[in-house]
Amino acid sequence: MPVEIELSSLDSHHLRLDVPAHPMNWVLVLELSPDGDPIRIDDVRARIAQRVDESDLYRLVLPTRPRRKPRFTLAASIDPTEHAKEHHVADRFGMLRQVEEFLGSPMRRDVPPWDFTLVHRQDTKAQTLLLRVHHALSDGFGAAGFIAMLIDTVSGSTAEYRRFVGTPRFKVDPVGPVTALAAGTRSSRLLRRKGRRRGHVRPVGDRAVRRVAEVTVSTETVRQNRLKLGASTQEYVYAMAGLAFARAFPEHADRPLRIMFPVTLDHTLAHTGNAASLAIFELPDAADSLPKRVHDVQAALHGSDPLRQAMDAPKTSHGLSYLPWRAQVLMTQLMAADSWDLAVGVNPAFSPEDRLLGREVTNVVGFHPMLGRELAVTALIFRDRVTIGMMADPAALPDVGLFAKHLRELMTGQV
């Protein structure tokens, strides 16, 4: 359809970073209770067909326009068979390999860039739903807007989730070129590494290679440990991830560890589109002491201004909009290529009372794309568990499983 929706500055940021060898897809793993009748793929497609016309969010398409700024258009119709597939795997390892495939493969541009995959495990007969969405369409906070297509609701529609599917796309007020230049200068100084760079650049090719792992810890263990350390949940996870990184990859210990974390600009968390920006802090050394690591995190956060850093990103993006699209792409990819080592997000999952097609959701695991070539870590708090999904490019960090091992030992051990 000819209707066009202008990209916001934050939407544009993720589209500039998207190339076949570095796709900007995120995946949400929804684990389902084995109780009840198995879900059939026809059930998934029927529910999608019932609700897909309830919001333009589900019909947004990103056509390929390599020399011009892309814009969302609306698909005239949606074919549920294109957006709901099924996959059979032997065990959980096979399911995670499917997640890696989704994270490493670019999404089609001729249809709305979202889909569901119903995964059947042969070892336990369990079923899992994988939701994949292009990051230019929505950030992880807006995942509820897509899950609403399958959630059992009182109204039998997406009405209960209207704030995630019917609100205007989140936008930051535009700024003039002088303000954008000042913000861009601050961002450039923030992202520029001091001393030796890791030397990684964003790869070229038809697809990417991704390796994932996961760690699950009880919320009670996290609560007890963080209280003993005098830390918030976010500070605790940042410290654990930083210490696990130092132990897993000691070859990177000769320089400060740079951690990027998302900062949402919509404090109501009720938006469509992208509302999460980024901030960075550094841990000064690779001290193998948990209390010191927590102290370092707290000192680094106290000495920074995350909200100002986060606001500079969309302002810089506004400044880039004055340039030709291909120049915007090049500059954004150069800035993100090697600017931090570790990206860590800590988020609540959607409501634990929700059911999908009659089945209870027992756990949620999130995998967000890498903006550069960092180790990407996403912690989701759901019911009585904190589950951490992590992803890396094996060419940059060859053993994400080793990082997961150290993280598990740290988070399940006694403080």
UniProtKB/TrEMBL annotation:
Gene3D superfamilies: Chloramphenicol acetyltransferase-like domain. InterPro entries: CAT-like_dom_sf, O-acyltransferase_WSD1_N. It holds the Pfam family WS_DGAT_cat. It comes from the Bacteria. Residues 7-218 form the O-acyltransferase WSD1-like N-terminal domain. This is Wax ester/triacylglycerol synthase domain-containing protein. It comes from Nocardia fusca. The lineage of its organism: Bacteria, Bacillati, Actinomycetota, Actinomycetes, Mycobacteriales.
